[in-house]
Design goal:
Elements lengths: L7 H31 L3 H31 L14 H5 L5 H4 L29 E3 L2 E2 L6 H11 L4 E3 L5 E2 L2 E2 H14 L11 E3 L5 E2 H9 L9 E3 L1 H18 L12 H8 L7 H7 L7 H11 L7
Parallel strand pairs: 1-6, 2-5, 3-8
Antiparallel strand pairs: 4-7
């Protein structure tokens, strides 16, 4: 439908969109502010904060213990100089005979100087940085639940811009596969040492169609209402201005309806895996369709009621 006129249908869409992303969060923030002023739930909230802080301290302690365990598991494997450590062996010793015999995954001497009495100079730390886009999987705790939450609240029915922009996504199993393949192929003389690689499913999909594929099997509607980018950016600018005016009055509130997010949702985000395919033969084992099927099946409990 053309947006040049003022048909009631188009105006109604704009009003509903503005209500979802601005009015409702603002009213909720006012109600939350009133609840805090009355002191309701203060003690309970403080208890939750204390428990959370204790959990964070415990998690930090476990992290330090795990890092220490990895440092203590320094192993020598074959390869140039004999002083290189297999990353896979240090983390999970004995997982793979190939990995145990792999030459030179990473040098531990520069990281664990305090553990080594050897006076020899530290060996260089080899690492191929792998840049991953759009990770999702069965055990996703952030991306997939947030998408379902937006679909349940009605926010996901809007398409920002033309709706043809494509994104690269990556199944978590393929991310693990890429890291293992890079580790096995890494040597001091290989191009992986210091190289940078993009890792994706190598199958870019339209953003709004992909999100629809995630939520439609659970009974939620696909994105279908098109909104022009200029209109959405104008509304987002208004929301950010109002938030900035309210902040000095102690009525700060958070919203995901920002200009940066709207631009990101309307642009192309594609990268190439050609370098990873060339240097360590990376080809994703799990395709996008199969990955979506596994992920949706795992989150069956989030089905629409």
């Amino acid at each position: 439908m053309a947006w040049g006129g003022c048909r009631p249908c188009a105006c109604g869409r704009v009003v509903r969109f503005f209500f979802f992303f601005f009015c409702r969060p603002l009213v909720s923030s006012f109600l939350d502010e009133g609840a805090r002023e009355t002191g309701g739930g203060g003690e309970e909230g403080g208890g939750r904060l204390e428990v959370a802080a204790g959990g964070n301290e415990a998690a930090a302690g476990r992290g330090r213990a795990q890092r220490g365990g990895v440092a203590d598991q320094r192993l020598r494997v074959g390869g140039g100089g004999g002083g290189w450590q297999s990353l896979g062996t240090a983390v999970a010793a004995g997982r793979s005979a190939d990995m145990r015999s792999s030459p030179l995954c990473v040098s531990a001497s520069s990281v664990n100087d305090s553990f080594s009495p050897s006076p020899s100079p530290p060996a260089p730390l080899l690492s191929p940085p792998l840049t991953v886009t759009g990770i999702y999987s069965e055990y996703d705790r952030y991306f997939f639940p947030s998408i379902v939450d937006k679909a349940a609240s009605g926010k996901l029915k809007y398409i920002i811009g033309s709706g043809t922009n494509r994104f690269d996504w990556t199944y978590a199993g393929n991310v693990a596969q890429a890291h293992e393949m890079a580790c096995l192929a890494l040597t001091p003389a290989s191009p992986l040492a210091g190289g940078v690689y993009f890792i994706t499913n190598d199958d870019a999909r339209p953003l709004w169609g992909f999100l629809g594929d995630l939520v439609a099997p659970l009974g939620y509607p696909r994105p279908r209402v098109h909104l022009p980018l200029w209109l959405v950016l104008g509304l987002a600018t208004l929301v950010e201005a109002v938030a900035a005016l309210l902040a000095p009055l102690g009525m700060a509130w958070e919203t995901d309806f920002t200009r940066a997010r709207m631009v990101l949702a309307s642009c192309e985000r594609r990268v190439s895996c050609a370098a990873a395919r060339r240097d360590f033969a990376y080809v994703p084992e799990v395709g996008v369709d199969e990955a979506v099927r596994r992920t949706v099946a795992h989150f069956e409990g989030l089905r629409a009621r």
